[in-house]
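Dissemination and training. As part of the outreach component of the grant, students in the summer workshop were shown how a complex can be specified as a set of sequence lines and then modelled as a single object. The example used during the hands-on session is reproduced here so that future cohorts can follow it. Participants entered these lines:
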Amino acid sequence: MNRAGLQSRIALGLSPTPRPGLILLPVGMALGPAGLNVLSDTVLSYLDPVVAIALAALGVFAGLDLNFRRVRETALFAAATVEAGLTMVAVGAGLWLIRSRLDLSAFSLWQVLTMFAVAAAVSSTASGDQVDRPSSFAARVGDLDDVVPIFLSGLLLAWLHQGFSRDALSLVSQTTLIALIIAAAGWLLVGQVLPEGEQQVFVAGTLLLLGGAAAFLSMSSLWVGLVAGLFWGVAGGSARDSIERDMRYLQRPLIVLLLLVTGARLELSLPALGVGVVYVLFRSFGKLAGGWAAGRIILPELPRDVGRRLLAPGVLAVASAVNVLQATGTSNTTTLLLAVTVIGSLGSELLAVMVQRQRES
Amino acid sequence: MNVLRRAAAIGLVVAAVFWIRHIGSEPAEPPSTALALGFTLVAAMVTGDLLRRFHLPRLTGYLLFGLIFGPYIGNVISEPMARQLQIVNGLATTIIAFIAGLAINLERLGQRAIGIARVTGITLSVATLGLVAVVWLVWPWLPIAPEATGLAKLTMIALFVTIVVSFSPTMTAAVISETGARGHLSEFVLTMVVLADVVVLVVFSLLMQGARLTLATESDSVNVLVRLAWEIVGAIAFGSLVGALFALYLRYIARETTVVLIAVCAVLSQVGAAQRFEPLLAAMAAGLVIENMAVAQGDRLKVALQRGALPVLVVFFAAVGTSLQVDTLLTTGGVAAGLVVIRIGFIRAGLNFGLRQADIDPRVSMYGWTGLISQAGITLGLASVLATDFPTWGAQVQSLLVAVIALDELVGPTIFRAGLAWAGEVDASAPRPLLVVSNREPYLHNYDEQGAIVCSPATGGVAVALDALMRERGGVWIGHAAGTADHVLVDAADKVSVPPDMPAYQLRRLWLDPDQFDAYYGGFANEGLWPLCHQVDVRPQFRAEDWEAYQAVNARFAAAIDQELPTIDTPVFIQDYHLALVAPRLRERRPAARTALFWHIPWPYPDRLRICPWRRDILAGLLANDLLAFQLERDRRNFVLAVEDELDAEIEADGARIWFDGRHTSVTAVPIGVDYDRIQTVGSDAALSAEQQRLSQCFGLRASVLGLGVDRLDYTKGIPERLEALDRVFTRRPDLRGRLTFLQIGVPSRSNLASYNAIEAEIDRKVQELNARHGVLGLAPPVYYHKAALTMPSLVALYRLADFCIVSSLHDGMNLVAKEFVAAREDEDGVLVLSALAGAAQELREALIINPYDIDGFTNGIVRAVDMGRDERRNRMKAMRRVVAGRNVFGWASDILEGLESLWTKPLQYAARAPQDTPV
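and obtained this result:
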């Protein structure tokens, strides 16, 4: 990944930094309705479209980043998938053990486990420090392990709305086609030679359409964004570069707002803290095991400590929970999901920083 | 092709939205907001652009989009979606008021504003009173609220008329910019619409407060006036506070400006409203404070406005379109047309009456009204506020005004274009005269040996560039008469038309007493300021009598400018350190004159400047200019430091503007270039090789390696150091004796001064010693010294012959020889050995940079130049040529002039045109 790409990943919270973006979550809590009420319910409702765009933007970045024409990309993607898959299984299993503490009034146990597992699977890496080939492979695995969870988030939401049925598949397919149509329209508009301001308006408008489409259909904004990102990546041309550049300009304020809004919506509780601890433990175990297995089965060049490098979840885990919350509305389960994901993300981030410092020393 | 792509994109987006609405159920409001915003943003932008191609305003496109795709016709945007679009209303109207505030630059409006404000006040008063009377009479037939009577009716009419008389600064600025109009009419109209809209905003805000009390249920309070005062004064105070904080943010942090700008507008809109502060007034106050506190950050704010305001305003205008009902529009069409005609009539009458009270150009009286027809965003914004606060009759007013705006938008720009043409302000060939002042005149008339008068043009790059500008723009050049026959050809006003072959401008010759000239030029300028500003071992000499002469001569130049200045807005371009006190003397006679001074030589560090007993007078004198330009950022910085040390001046954080003695001076660095194209032309002339042969024979250039130095014989040029380094080269590399000749062209200069005499003698002696030491009988001499000036073709011929060129200044503002050498090397060969102490070294980083005080290093540099391979020579020269080609002397001159002119036009144009494509 080039330097600009790296910077954007750090800005997006997709790479761990000594001051992770997740620090904005407590700030959001302080400003939210339960705190100073600067971000009142009315203000939060105004900011809902921004959350939808931010989620779509994260999906777009993941899509743009996937490029099978790169050397070893297929193997790396397979390794990332194995690693993410094992993490999901580990978190699912861990939560299954404490299933009595989960609220199952609105959804089935399997649906709830999938929600948590999908959010837990993503990770971020300190991509900037990679000087040797194994380390850069590890970083790339961290970059790519969000693709499958985002794809699953699309299926999960259709499953939540339509049950395990043909209608669910139809909804996912139609959403995907709509995302492709919007992406194509954006590509046609941005591909022209335009004044900078006008081009940015088209990029922002396209993102709004993507996020808006997902919100209207109560589907995954991340998935819709991923599809659009993949389309632009494949279509290429100057439009792709313009979109990536303009999104880089938009990303920081979007992510800041996403985290502030998430923080403001957060309802922490003791049960959430308990589930959060289990979540961190099993997620960490899943990452370590997943990293080890990916190295053994798919890509022997991966460093032995790849799992330890993938402990940090970045913003995407929280985004994944917000994605579910937005699409299904507020319920005890989604409130718990958000709280656990935030606690788990902050805990995992802390763990990742400690591990990184230990490695450096 | 672009149209097809856009049409296809819109087709896809419409299909996607239909599909989404088909498969999804219309959700509760928030989830569909993003979809509505996204669709509106993309599709309205494209529609606006498509209409632009048919020479129709974009704003009409946005409105049309809303109307066609909105719930009443196309229903792609459903009614709930249309409702959700209204969330941007508060933000958009705040942005509009904010932009109006940004248009008021108090300093630049300055004295003009008083006269124009009077005209504006009278025009608005006449138009408002006339319209109120007419609307009162026809009220029962207007589709607003015919049943209203008494105070309610009067309040409604007052609000309605206030909106009707508003203008569009952006449309006005757009027409002026598009036509390239310059002159009193365009300047007057732009200033007037900006001022008028500020007045309209304030009056509207006051009336709205009154209306809320009169028309709503809140009139029972005994503290009405107290609350009104709180809301108005509080709004201004709150807006000023937010503006001041934002200005500080722009000055000291300036990151994520667009986001912060939107946040500021949101704060003004939401928090202000929550505290019952009038958001429009607060936003305008904020804009005004920022414009007048943080002008230096204006460009950054402009970019932020383009990014942030455009999408919000596009959605806002489209949202207004979605709220329009076709049947209402059809019924109001006729009324709107009548209103447009009556509005123009009263505005014209008011303007004529107002102009009679002020001393304004007659062309403004005749055509001023043509610029006061356009209406756009401000009108729409105010109408929207009315519709939000008073949904019944306010919505009716909005519908009627949309029709009025559509008509005014269609006819306004066309009539204004015609008005500007009638006033002769759009004619590209119309004169935009310029006044140049320099010590040296551009054309000298001398007697030759036969007693005939010969005209010699000045050959320096600066003189050639300014001469070219004067040929194009016309005007007057004031210079000291130095030719022996100068007095013969001038008219009674001491003027002569130049150039002699094709007169394009007037040269005003100034006769100076020889003793006074010696003291001013030879004494203070060249024995005082010159060594003061150059770090060399020559003591500056400051004598009181020289200083007096310098002051007197500068005052003479100022008096001549006063006589020759055709209009107060004619730019005055003052050249160099000889004329540092011209601006203050001129300002005593013409306080509003617009002057720029270019300081060609370096500016010393404050410690060295303290040598000069009259440094404060010089600093203050330079600060009497509107624009002060230096060669390098280093010089600009030194000047700002000196001002900080010596004067009680206020300096902006980035040092770009200085506030002193009641006025601002912009201080900038504009490095000078060479006449690149002319050098290319000379270089590609077929006569070049013949000239090279002639010079080779003339100078006996038979060595295989040729080095070249071209300098005025000045102690700052480092010629003795160069000769010392060459001496060491020949000592270290005896194989170069007879193989390498260094040709030194020395142009005698200021030879009547002792310091210059001494340096000439030293160079003569060193050349003789070097040739005696290293010369080989029968072979080429180590140094050939030619002590005379050469023409440009001869210089280009030598530049092309040379294998390397040395510029070894001990301190130099720029040094154009370095750039000329590079410009002449079309063959991409040759090496430039350049002193790190010459300003050119800041730009020509691919030269072999040497330090003339480090003779060993200098020697190594020359040896490296001799031995350098072809590839390296080519790569270095290519890189340097890119730099030199990119900044020629004409660009330098026009940069300074445009910088000067934009000090007046920019604040208004930039603020009014901030969201360029979104008429406000």
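The first strand of chain B starts at residue 434 and ends at 440. Students were then asked to discuss how this feature might be tested experimentally.
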